[in-house]
Write a structure and sequence with these properties.
The protein has 13 helices and 14 strands. With about 375 residues, it is an alpha/beta fold. It has a five-stranded mixed beta sheet, with helices on both faces. A five-stranded mixed beta sheet has the order 12-11-10-13-14, sandwiched between helices. Strand 10 and strand 11 (about 200-205) form a beta hairpin. The radius of gyration is 23 Å and the shape is globular. The model has no long low-confidence stretch (mean pLDDT about 90). The structure holds zinc ion. Zinc ion binds near residues 223, 234, 236, 241 and 243. Zinc ion binds near residues 234 and 244.
């Protein structure tokens, strides 16, 4: 409540929680002793002695956030309000395997901590997003198709040898969904975040929380089939998968087949931005294929907002027009009545923001704070 500004004086906290004033005073003292809150001065007086205003101390520690991608990653050191203190891209091939990649990440984190004037002792938690499915409890990737050598690798254990802080790992699309939702759509209960990059995936926020499904495979819309593409074989072995039709890799391949220079998603974006008519038409068609799948998702899930993110979403006008056209045509009116379809506002920062938020919500959860304060009393 102090952090969100819902109740910022001891009296308000007592009123809102129904706890005795003496209990609130005791709890606030413990939070002050841990420097998680501080006294920010007096509130406006309405006569009598003005009550002291409490504020959350976002500098009470730092979070390390890593958004690992297939070929490019992004790292950040943030405060406890998810504001970046230092941030850097990292070009590394995830296929080099966990040891090599995590060593590079760790070395970079140490440099970034130093630049931010912080030490490993200030780290309250580490959040990692990976481009593949994750068994959330173990923090280990599960059969990730584009991450050779990572299957079952316990990422938290690797970091535990180097930092004394909790390590949370999730799928990259889930953390992007979390970052975008927390930053811009907190009042929206049901949101879909669609990442359109080399591949296509979807993060689901249901009832305000990430929905992962029974095995962590929820939202894998890249392998839903779209009509009229039975000739397109997907890497998964099926035909007509959305990702094989409209993913960045697929588009780049088709553009290079007609003689354009395109190796990956970024080249597709470059060609669209330069106004190349063939690339523009192809991305619009990709948007329509995506719209077909999203129309089904809209009928099934009834989201309030669909956010389009990932590298290819940087062509958003072309992509969005295709998506909107088909989603509105093919979804039921009730489901699209108040539906908003927008490009990501965080852009390539959605992942690290979400990774930081994932950690912050974990270390500031009531149970975690209770444990911390009990430790203090015992000491
Ligand atoms: Zn497939």
């Amino acid at each position: 409540m102090i952090r969100d500004g819902e109740a910022v004086t001891r009296a308000e906290l007592a009123r809102r929680t129904g706890l005795a004033r003496s209990t609130v005073a005791q709890r606030v003292d413990a939070l002050l002793a841990h420097e998680l809150v501080y006294e920010a001065g007096d509130s406006a007086s309405t006569g009598g002695r003005p009550p002291t205003v409490l504020a959350f101390n976002r500098e009470a520690g730092v979070v390390l956030a890593a958004d690992l991608g297939a070929t490019h990653s992004r790292l950040a050191v943030t405060d406890l309000g998810a504001q970046p203190l230092d941030e850097t891209p990292l070009e590394i091939d995830i296929g080099e395997g966990p040891e090599a990649v995590l060593e590079r990440v760790h070395a970079q984190f140490m440099e970034m901590l130093e630049r931010a004037g912080r030490t490993p002792g200030d780290v309250r938690g580490i959040g990692v997003g990976v481009p593949g499915p994750v068994k959330a409890a173990a923090g280990a990737p599960v059969n990730p198709p584009i991450m050779p050598g990572w299957d079952g690798f316990p990422i938290p254990e690797w970091f535990a040898k180097r930092y004394e802080a909790p390590v949370l790992v999730d799928n990259d699309v889930n953390i992007m969904a979390l970052g975008e939702h927390w930053s811009h759509w907190r009042d929206t209960e049901h949101l879909l975040f669609v990442k359109i990059g080399t591949g296509i995936g979807c993060g689901i926020v249901a009832g305000g929380a990430i929905h992962r499904g029974a095995q962590g495979a929820a939202g894998d819309i890249g392998h839903i089939s779209v009509q009229g593409h039975d000739d397109v074989v997907c890497s998964c072995g099926n035909v007509g998968c959305l990702e094989a039709v409209a993913g960045g890799r697929a588009l780049a391949r088709r553009l290079s087949e007609i003689g354009l220079e395109a190796e990956g998603t970024r080249d597709v974006v470059r060609l669209v931005r330069s106004g190349d008519a063939r690339a523009v038409r192809m991305v619009r068609e990709a948007g329509r294929a995506l719209g077909e799948v999203l129309a089904a998702c809209v009928n099934f899930f009834n989201p309030g907002v669909i956010v389009l993110g990932g590298d290819l979403s940087e062509t958003h006008e072309q992509l969005l027009s295709g998506v909107r056209e088909v989603t509105f045509q093919r979804s039921l009116p009730l489901a699209t009545q108040a539906l908003v379809t927008v490009p990501s506002r965080l852009g390539d920062r959605a992942g690290i923001t979400g990774a930081a938020i994932m950690v912050i919500e974990h270390v500031l959860a009531p149970e975690a704070i209770d444990r911390m304060l009990r430790g203090h009393v015992a000491a």
